[in-house]
Amino acid sequence: MSTLPSQDTIRRSHLSVGDMGLSTGHQNLLPVAAGVHIIPDLTSGRPSSVVSSSATHSHSGHCLHNNHEEELFDNDNCEGSPVENRRSLKTPVNSTDHSLRCLAKDCSADISAEEAASNQKSSACLAVNVPIPEDKEAFESFNHSMSCDNRHHDAYPPSQTPQVVSSSNSTSVAYHHPHESRRGNPDSRTVISVGDDPAGQSLPGVAAKRPDCCGGGAASVTGVSIVSARSMIQGSVITFRDVEYIVPVKKNPCSRAVKKVVLDGVSGIMRPGLNAIMGPTGCGKSSLLDVLAGRKDPRFLTGEVLVDGHPQPKNFKCISGYVVQDDILMGTLTVRETLYLAAALRRKQGSTKVETHEKINEILDELGLMKIADNKIGTELIRGISGGERKRTSIGMEIIADPSVLFLDEPTTGLDAFTAGSVIQTLKSLSRRGRTIVLSIHQPKYSIYKLFDSLTLMASGRIVYHGPARKEPIQYFSKLGYRCEDHNNPPDFFLDILHGEIKPADSTRDNCTNDTLSCGSFEGDEFDAQSDDSFERMRIVSERLVSLWTDSTECQNIRNEVLAVANRSSNATNYSNPPDGIGYAASFPLQLLIVCWRTFIGLLRDPQASIVQTLVYLFFAISMGVVYFGLDTSLESGLQNRSGLFFFATLQVVFVNIGSIELFLKERALFIHEHSSGYYRVCAYFLAKLICDVFPTKALPVFFFMPITYWMAGLVPQVGNFFFFELILTLGTISASAAAMAVSASVTLFSIANVIISILFVFMMVFGGFLINLNSMPPWLSWLRYFSIFHYTFGGLLVNELTNLEFCPTANKTSPTFNDTRKCELGRLYLDNYGYASQTTWDMWSNVVGLSGIAIVCFILCYCLLRRINTFK
């Protein structure tokens, strides 16, 4: 029976055996399992298959020593040269007892079956053989031993039979877990996959270091990953050809727009793996990233962008993942709740709650967020998680929908060196699952740079290098005469070249090949006598480097490959194109429910929004009740005091809503990102704000606290008058909030919005009827009253209170204003003098209609403005 790794040895978490050592969700917990071996096809320069050892046969190991910069062969204990050893592998193996040459000191020349079965050998050797036989019997006849201390692994039950899974680029062995199938996961299995690297380039070789269980430090096997089959992603190949992005720019509002070239004829290909776009500030790397992600305005874009050979679909930004530079998260939610929101809105319908929670736990474990899963993200008032944890949470929100492509705009910005390294290491781990990951980055350290599979160097909106990221860029610039000093960080070296800080070596100019421009292109007074202006120097150098790259063999190969992808028919998914360019995974009711839940949770956990605003309304209600306590019906003060109370109440419910301008300004970036990514429709977000923000925080406090003022002031003690009083003030605050929301949706700066809404409310107050008599207003201005919230609110309160109320002179004859001839007056007469009609029922309810009309118009305007917000970057 084959000795197979146990469930405890190979966890559900991601295991990647790569250049940086054994990388798992739990460090140093997953040793290389005994009996599992890698079979690299050295004749083709890449690993080809994986087998499991048998307990009855044996053959020797074949190991390669790996250096972090290049693969070296150590032949002290081996026979022949590496070339001879490679040739020996071309002969098919027909016997179950094989003796292959060993190239590493740590590997034993021969490993017997007995030693392998008893796990007495602690060498981390790699068995080398021809590709795995397809039939099961021949497969089980092979014996490949790579053993560690047996306390780190057990045998699988006999029912967990290995299954060979082959593809064009790699071969994998899958071990099925019956107990997982009983739990409802029929495809739950562990896959040990060896093949081409995610970028589609042949790996330079298979190298291994001794794992911790063997006492030799962290294990490292290039190009090997053990992952869950359910988490494997089919990455997309993105090709772009002759892409230009030119935008009109105005230096000031009165000047004519001039065209600015952001991208100038760039071409290339992004394969599955970790693809980095690097260059100086302002070189166009973020713009290229946005173009590939479908987040640039197509009106200013020319060229061709293909996804798996098909034209980029309109909804590509919804089916791909995009992590912005500044983390856009709801600070009042926990990490787990944030991922739940993304899962509910972006994952395809049909997933059960159990599956959704399992997926969330998988993402939390994969990104190292399990310990802080129930911690809040954090706001200005709430202490939250760290910057690196926020970045990984943003990544989790995007990958929870299993996108084939993930874009990241400078993910290391604002992070310390260690945190930045951990974030990129996480991305490397994700890329090994098959994803295509494209990121822009400025100047990474070497430990980050060596994780990249491909590199794109840009200068002044054009490409100066595009290809593999390891040794090839240094070799390319070496051909141009640029020498990278020992121990110099390659990214620093590249940026120094682009800034013109490094000149090409004179000794190399005579050795220029026909692949590049003539050697004379490096010479001349223009380069030697460079301008003192660093920008001018960088421009000159950039133009030459672009010319050299355009005429190079490497560039021609890339262009030919891009043309081949564009011309051939692809078998990839034929993406759909929704009419509006946005596809939604969740239904409208679910979108509304989830966004309402998030908004309501945010209000409850934000004391500034939930508690302070409530206390403000309570304070004003009690204050007005105290000031206007026990109003009388005297002719001298009754009318004036009631008018003052109603104006004060109108002033409160209108100007308190100035704070509503923050409603969309604070969440503008969040709304744009989530809406453009297909989280929810505009109407779902807008209705959620009305239901869970405007009505609870603006309308309800007025409805519940203004009765305090009503009864303390001693207004008309009738039920009809009381509820009309409540209705008018509630509609007044909703109308004011709607006006503030419309202003908030129309501008991007808080200061500008504050000025606009303040001027608007003051204008409404002037035409409200309290500061100026409406009858004395000139006809060409009097019509403006119908656009005033003050006019309808203040007028409605007056008509409701004064219509049937009688005011009489005081009985105090000592008063200097006492006049025996004066009689009691009805409040209706006072209303006529103020310019408010009160003869019919419509005269009172017309104020309700007016406030409702203003609110509806402002809400519609706000919704239209939200829909017109430019979601392109």
UniProtKB/TrEMBL annotation:
The membrane topology noted for this protein in its Swiss-Prot or TrEMBL record is: Multi-pass membrane protein
Q: Which InterPro entries match?
A: AAA+_ATPase, ABC2_TM, ABC_transporter-like_ATP-bd, ABCG_transporters, P-loop_NTPase
Quote the PROSITE patterns the UniProt record gives: ABC_TRANSPORTER_2
UniProt GO MF annotations: ABC-type transporter activity; ATP binding; ATP hydrolysis activity; efflux transmembrane transporter activity; organic anion transmembrane transporter activity
Q: Provide ranges: composition bias, Basic and acidic residues.
A: 177-186
Chain segments carrying region Disordered = 45-68, 75-94, 151-188
Q: Which GO terms describe its cellular component?
A: apical plasma membrane
Report keywords, A-Z. ATP-binding, Membrane, Nucleotide-binding, Transmembrane, Transmembrane helix, Transport
Main location class: membrane
Quote the subcellular location field of this record. Membrane
Residue ranges annotated as transmembrane are 582-604, 611-631, 643-665, 686-710, 722-743, 755-774, 844-866
Tell me which residues make up the ABC transporter domain. Answer: 238-485
Q: Quick check: keyword Magnesium in the entry? A: no
Q: Does the keyword Transmembrane helix apply?
A: yes
Superkingdom assignment: Eukaryota
Which spans does this entry mark as compositional bias, Low complexity? 45-58, 157-173
Q: Per its UniProt record, what SUPFAM superfamilies does this chain match?
A: P-loop containing nucleoside triphosphate hydrolases
Family, per entry: Belongs to the ABC transporter superfamily. ABCG family. Eye pigment precursor importer (TC 3.A.1.204) subfamily.
**Name of this protein:** Broad substrate specificity ATP-binding cassette transporter ABCG2
Q: What is the organism field in this record? A: Mesocestoides corti (Flatworm)
